[in-house]
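Protein Record: Sequence and Backbone Structure Tokens
======================================================

Structure line: whole-number tokens from a learned vocabulary of local backbone shapes, matched to residues.

Purpose: to set a sequence beside its fold so the mapping can be learned.

___
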Amino acid sequence: MDIDNANTEALLRYHRFHERLNKSIKVQIIGLRLLADAIEDGRPFRQIKDSLSKNNEFIGSMPDWTNPMDLVRSARLDIGRAGMVRAFSAFDLFLDEITAAVNRWRDFRELVPTSHKSSKQKAADTGDVDRLEKVYHALGAKLQDIEFLRPVYKYFRLARDCIVHRDGLASAALADQSVSSDVDTAVARWVKETGEQRPPDILRLLKGENIEFSSLHAVSSSSILRLIALDLNRQVVQHVGKSGLVYLSAYEAFFAPEPLLDELTGRTMLRALNNLLSNRYRAKRVTEVDTAGMLRKMGLTKRCSKAFRDILEGS
């Protein structure tokens, strides 16, 4: 079994969120562009209002239409800010879930769990600029492969906190980070180091200045977080190894509060689990002999078979 490029469930969920966010932001921007075109072409206010009312897509009265293009600009700002905040919420969930997966494996092997506390144990939504380093340290992962992008990560994390807790006004810490030489160095190396088409756009900010993020900032922040998620996932998969990946896949398939019913294709437990490993988690050269041997060594064969039968009978 080759697990070099395998996914965890946590990474898969973040990746799918990233794709959904990209599509959603594009649709919102398309809608605003069409509205802006209608305004610039002189389409009457009544026509725009009637179109919304006819399709039952509007609640309450229309906003003040004195300066409609200001409304469009404000909405674009909200898309950028909200998208970036959503990206960090999904990323923090990823950190929680991948930490839980490692602890689940360590608990099964009767090892001491990681010391990192979930963000859910913190005061609600306080933000934590250093959380990334804490999670890497707790999971025994190394930061060197993402070291160059950490200044940009910190910039967006500070911006996220300012949007959530300061109504979008830059803090002194964010203002300092926005003009940091470390950020400039990271941006200069970005395309070469990441293979992405364009580096993130860094707004140079003063303390108390409004953070006018666009949809591009939302997508950039999510892309940065995805790069980090890929790196941490890779190291976690190496840490748990083949048996760990089989165990975690079996957990998601058969024992999780919401087992992956729609993903369990195959008439036997082993075939269903191997299909999951190959198709959902992207392990390569998966064989029933290898999987059966690992389940047997872990003492899980009977438990998995019974759980698989129960799922089939209950579906």
About this structure: The radius of gyration is 23 Å. Residues 118-126 have pLDDT under 50 and may be disordered.
